[in-house]
Amino acid sequence: MKTKKIKKEVAHILIYVNFVAFFYVIRALPAFTYRPVSRFMGCLAFFLSGSNRKKISKNLKIAYGDTFNSEERKRITKDLLSNIVLSFCEVVWAAGRDAEQIVSRAVIEGEEKLKSALATGQGVVGVCSHMGNFPLQHVILVKKGYPANVIVKNPTAMYLSRFCERLACRNNVPFISKREVKTAVKDAQEWLSSTRGILSFFLDQHSGRGAKVEFYGVDVLAPTGAALFARKYNCIALGIFTHRLRDGRHRIIIEGPYPLNRTDDPEEDARINTSYFMKRVEHYVRLYPEEWFTWLHRRFR
User: Fold this and answer.
1) Residue 256 neighbours by CB under 8 Å, 6+ apart
2) CA-CA distance, 232 to 228, in Å (whole number)?
3) What pLDDT shows up at residue 1?
4) Average pLDDT, rounded, for the chain
């Protein structure tokens, strides 16, 4: 048991050291190098990480069947891995910039819907997915002055998790950690009740306690947090999605308000509303499959 604990500690330290080293290397590079560096690193990851390559290809095959041939699946996989690196580079860049510079990197469509929803004083539940540069999406909303918060899952590596938390705090970007679920729920409830701001949920990854909904024609389990909070606090539900434009900026799409089922059966309401949310997630994944990070996860179980 002691040996296992030591190995785990060493692994966490190595992950932290490599991550921080890469962070400061990227920070030292000029922004115009991000795309070629990301493309190189993405292709390198494609050839070196066979397990991730197979996982992405398998998920694409389940979702699209024979719509994509093997060469198209390879292209999407390379693009996805490159986009992950590019998103990391952009987050590093944002960590050293002022609000005006960060906001200038985005085009927000449907912003009037967000303003109208906040003006009601009901609070907003943001339905989001791990698409595009989703961490930067939250940063941009915060830097635009919106009362925004997000529930996030911390990295499993302890030291890396602490580094990310310190980075967010230094840049005044609020977040609610899911490290302790009960604490996260309590913190989210208190924040939403006091601010009636935007509380974002990412619901496109597997949740063992989630609702069974259809996604790409396959039954999956999806987290119901967004639906439950929207019902309990009578919030307005808006979709908030992002993808990368050709000129390097980010298009943030705000849509809704989403229709919410409200009956005497809260469990069924949560399932129906979550099913609708996942249909909107699928809509954007189909538009930009190379930008959806969850292909890297076991979405279909």
Assistant:
1) 113, 117, 127, 236, 237, 238, 239
2) 6
3) 54
4) 93
